[in-house]
Amino acid sequence: MAKSGTPVLRFAPSPTGYLHIGGARTALFNWLYARRTGGTFRLRIEDTDRQRSTPEAIAAIFNGLTWMGLDWDDEPVFQFARAERHREIAEAMVARGHAYRAYDTAEELDAMRTRQKAEGKPVRSRWRDAGPNDATPDIAPVIRLKGPTSGETLVRDVVQGDVRFSNENLDDMVLLRSDDTPTYMLAVVVDDFDMGVTHVLRGDDHLNNAARQLQIIHGMGWPEPVYGHVPLIHGADGAKLSKRHGALAVEAYRDMGYLSEAMRNYLLRLGWSHGDEEIIPTAQAIEWFNLEGIGRSPARFDLKKLDSINAHYMRQLDEAALTTELMATAERLVPERKLGETIRARLNSAMGGLKSRAKTLLELNEAAEFLYADGPPILNAKAAQVLSPEAKALIKKFIATIENLPWESSELESQTKTLAEKEGVSLGDIAQPLRAALTGKTTSPPVFDVLIALGREEALTRLSAHAA
Asked: Which of 216, 288, 434, 437 yields a CA-CA distance of 20 to 30 A from 37?
């Protein structure tokens, strides 16, 4: 329940597709303002399009918001279930003289639209001015809004400023269809009122809707919400964001290896600013977020910037927590893979060297693959080239040197340097074959860290197999 006198905000997606990053940013802004002000953040599923709304899309919205860490207050509201309430308000609008029943036939509607479009006039039915004694045809009517035809409707917008709409240009939009089902425009207003919504933050593609929705609000004598219409996200080329720019489902970014806090930080900066700050952890974002910081220009999506922010959060994240994130990613990529505590210990040990090279969890996963299973790794082409007969001979001498030593990084490194001097080679001449035999690759964390992470038995098993 909302606290008395505190803001109530909502996120109201339509489950006709998945939660994309534009919707996620809208949810984030609403969530941040609610948390900043001690208010309430509510979720409404606008599922009135029964043909296109799917359980899978509803689940994806829930999952996407949960991954983003945007928890909602109270139970979600499902718009379709409230159809009777929407019909009640449509009838109340008629009773108040702010709506009317229109009995136009399909042919009359077509002719009316054609004529009024040619004359540059809004769509208004002849039934708008019908008297009580006018005969009505034997067809099911629609209920249309009967808005004012003179003056203007003012949308007071905290992002766009005051936006004025001439009433003479606004259609008498349909509120209730002839089959008694409510339209989106009616349902949104009724649901916002009944949910106690005080602030409506949404994309600026809804700005025109606000003028029409205000006429319903005024007709019912309800309080106006605070509106904030946020410019949409564009691609790097300035065009409207599309799949080719990265307009993917939020869960796709999880699967691409991004951390949820990095995603929150990045989406926050797509259209909101606090000075020149780029790295804004969520706790700080809650403290700072305000409506005045929302910009009026479209933000541009930049995947390289997201990579940079994600790399920062990966480096800053506690290594045990990052290991947990990585293991979840690895098991999601290969569902039959189950990583136990032995692998967790290896990852924790090696994480310092692993995370410094990766920008995403996918890159981190690729770097850590050699730790996921026991036994000698499969060599890639470069690693196979490194393991020449001379390199294998050095590995055998290395095994003989260190197999009975204390298994400590500094001791292993010290004895390897001594071996290199004795053999007249560089430390790298020994380290690189070791890396290839231990990981199957020519790049990895520092080789002595790899030895420690694998442990004595596993490391010697791998070295012996590839030195043979």
From this structure: 216
Token look-up 């780029």 returns 278
Confidence (pLDDT) at 246? 60
Q: 335 CB contacts (<8 Å, ≥6 apart)?
A: none
What angle, 0 to 180 degrees and rounded to 10, lies between the N-to-C axes of helices 55-68 and 260-269? 90
What is the Cα 232 distance to its own chain's centre? 14
Instruction: Please state the separation of Cα 228 from the chain's center in Å.
Output: 20
**Cβ(7)–Cβ(40) below 8 Å:** yes
**Distance of CA 2 to CAs 6, 39, 46, 409, 465, Å?**
7, 7, 21, 57, 65
pLDDT at res. 434: 96
Which residue do the tokens 């002849």 mark? 126
Report DSSP state, residue 238.
S
H/E stretch holding 24? helix 21-37
187, 90 contact by CB (below 8 A)? no
Distances (CA, A) of 233 to 20, 276, 280, 290: 11, 20, 19, 19
Active-site residues, by number, are 243
Q: What is the reported pLDDT for 5?
A: 81
The pairing of beta strand 99-102 with beta strand 142-145: antiparallel
Tokens 């038995």 belong to residue: 457
In the predicted model, residues of the chain with pLDDT beneath 50 are none
| Spatial distance between the Cα atoms of 10 and 198, rounded to a whole number of angstroms | 9
Residues 187 and 198: their CA atoms lie apart, in Å, by: 16
Looking at residue 354, its pLDDT comes to 93
What confidence score (pLDDT) does residue 103 get? Answer: 95
Q: Are 203 and 267 in contact (CB under 8 A)?
A: no
Computed from CA positions of residues 253, 255, 259, 260, in that sequence, does the dihedral angle turn out positive or negative? positive
CA-closest candidate to residue 186, choices 270, 272, 83: 83
